[in-house]
Design goal:
It comes from Paraburkholderia eburnea. One of its GO terms (molecular function) is DNA-binding transcription factor activity. Keywords: DNA-binding, Transcription, Transcription regulation. This is AraC-like DNA-binding protein. Pfam families: AraC_binding, HTH_18. The protein is an alpha+beta fold and 271 residues long. It has three domains: 149 residues, Sandwich (Jelly Rolls), CATH 2.60.120.280; 44 residues, no CATH class; 56 residues, Arc Repressor Mutant, subunit A (Orthogonal Bundle). The chain is built from ten helices and ten strands. It has a six-stranded antiparallel sheet. Strands 3-8-5-6 form a four-stranded antiparallel sheet. The chain is globular. It starts with 11 loop residues before the first strand and ends with a helix.
């Protein structure tokens, strides 16, 4: 389905067929799109039309067509139209674990300001920011992600920063949390699974994956909730199946992570 900018028309979000670790969307919003929120993935995108405005690290950013947006994991941000005509954009959400598959334990790249016109990054995001109707083959996605990580590391000089912390322990923790995300995980379990004390592990996990172990666990539960909502599952049933205490508990976390309530997200995602 091809959609085009529709001045003051209904908001919509078109989602590509997901591939593990990467979510791709194209969307149109007028007015306020998202309240302040944060998620544990990189958000990398391009404005197609209009002015895409957002607050990020205490600054107002205005992205114009051709700009590349790079928001670091777990950094609060919002989103709204900079003009009354609204804005259209494409965005990919990439789990930091895929960055680490390329970096192998180096620090995650951080782009100051969240916006760039650097042609290296524009070229590196070309394949990943294609129309939603284009299904990325696994090898195509892998090559594109590798190019993206290298370009972002070069632009931010991340490759010059010496690795610190225990990457193997952090990776084992991520794998354990991923496998047990629908239940409560005790700190002692993570210590046993990784051979690392909880304080060092928490520091290393944030360094390599951009968020805390608990936030990572919560986000995987929210990913499960979104899949169930798209399949038509009731909110209360989705919350319970994903491991939340109740629907209100899930809704609070959902809104903080995605900037809108589950019901509002469901309406836009289906629109």
């Amino acid at each position: 389905m091809n959609r085009h900018r529709n001045s003051l028309g209904p908001d919509w979000v078109e989602r590509a067929e997901p591939i593990e670790g990467v979510e791709r969307i194209e969307a149109y919003f007028h007015g306020k799109a998202y309240a302040m929120h944060r998620h544990d993935t990189y958000a990398i995108g391009r404005t197609l039309a209009g002015v895409q405005s957002f607050n990020y690290r205490r600054e107002r950013c205005d992205s114009l067509p051709g700009h590349t947006i790079v928001l670091h994991p777990d950094e609060p941000h919002d989103g709204q139209a900079g003009t009354r005509e609204g804005f259209q954009y494409r965005m990919i959400y990439v789990q930091p674990s895929l960055f680490q598959d390329v970096l192998g334990g180096s620090a995650l790249p951080f782009l100051e300001g969240g916006l760039t016109t650097d042609p290296r990054l524009s070229a590196a995001t070309g394949a990943l920011l294609q129309q939603m109707s284009h299904t990325l083959e696994p090898l195509e996605q892998n090559d594109a992600l590798t190019e993206l990580v290298h370009a972002l590391a070069a632009i931010t000089s991340t490759g010059k920063i010496a690795p610190v912390g225990d990457y193997r322990a952090a990776r084992r923790a991520r794998e354990f949390l991923h496998a047990h995300c629908s239940r409560t995980v005790a700190l002692e379990e993570l210590e046993t699974a990784t051979g690392r004390d909880r304080w060092s592990l928490s520091r290393d996990f944030r360094h390599f994956y951009g968020t805390s172990p608990y936030r990572y666990l919560t986000m995987r539960r929210l990913d499960a909730v979104r899949r169930m909502l798209l399949a038509g599952t009731a909110l209360s049933h989705a919350a319970a199946a994903a491991g939340f205490a109740d629907q209100s508990h899930m809704t609070r976390h959902f809104t903080r992570a995605f900037g809108m309530t589950p019901g509002a997200w469901q309406r836009v995602a289906r629109g």
